[in-house]
Write a structure and sequence with these properties.
Shape: rod-shaped
Number of helices: 6
Helix content: 40-55%
Number of strands: 7
Order of helices and strands: HHHEEEHHEEEEH
Distance between the termini: 39 Å
Strand content: 15-25%
Oligomer: single chain
Radius of gyration: 38 Å
Length: 228
């Protein structure tokens, strides 16, 4: 159940980051492309790439020539993440052709390819990466409530079994006390050994239980119950 929530939460955050990227693309164009003239004759085209795709490629080529490292787009993208209350480290890479290696410890969430023709070596590729911390996926009251319930249940079960064990031991002690009282041949002696309960001493050397100057030897299951 928690894993399902984390997956849903991650998808929502990724979609918000993708939306921030689209907003950054739009703002970059509106800010840095002041005038644009684009002529396209589909009859003279050697491929079936649409006019919109070729136009977008031209936009990206112009922006790339003005800002080869695309620092402006990267800066706008980071700003949009902040505006959308996304505490995430994100960055954008731009290459011509598939020549970029995905950085470690980051996740590729968006890839935009702008084509001029069918020569992939001329494709302009924008890639969006984010570093998504796990705390963002579990940072919700339900998770902490679930953790608290789990801790309470675990503690409760541990206390229950401890009390059961204590009850069983006390029952055995009471049985042995009765045996001591009913047996006239028990010797009167001074307490020796380790006190395992108030007034009850376990003499491990002689394997016997002592109480009020009386003793009884234990063996079998009774001995195992005392030693647990």
């Amino acid at each position: 159940m928690e894993y399902t929530f984390i997956s849903i939460q991650k998808n929502e955050i990724v979609q918000q980051c993708q939306g921030s990227f689209q907003e950054a693309l739009k703002k970059e164009k509106e800010t840095f492309i002041i005038r644009k003239k684009f002529f396209y004759d589909v009859q003279k085209s050697s491929d079936n790439i649409s006019a919109d795709e070729k136009s977008n490629w031209c936009d990206q080529f112009f922006l790339l020539s003005e800002d080869p490292n695309r620092h402006r787009l990267d800066s706008i993208f980071r700003q949009k993440l902040v505006e959308n209350n996304l505490s995430i480290t994100g960055f954008i890479t731009c290459t011509i052709g598939e020549t970029y290696t995905i950085p470690t410890h980051t996740e590729l969430i968006k890839k935009e390819v702008y084509r001029k023709n069918k020569d992939k070596n001329q494709d302009i590729i924008l890639k969006v990466y984010i570093d998504l911390p796990m705390i963002m996926l579990i940072n919700r009251p339900y998770t902490y409530i679930l953790l608290a319930v789990w801790l309470i249940c675990t503690t409760g079960v541990a206390i229950y079994f401890r009390r059961v064990k204590s009850y069983q031991r006390n029952s055995i002690l009471r049985t042995h006390i009765q045996t001591l009282s009913d047996n006239p041949h028990n010797n009167t002696l001074q307490p020796a050994g380790k006190e395992i309960s108030k007034g009850y001493y376990w003499d491990i050397q002689h394997v016997c239980l002592q109480h009020e100057g009386k003793k009884i030897k234990l063996k079998g299951l009774n001995l195992k119950s005392i030693l647990r």
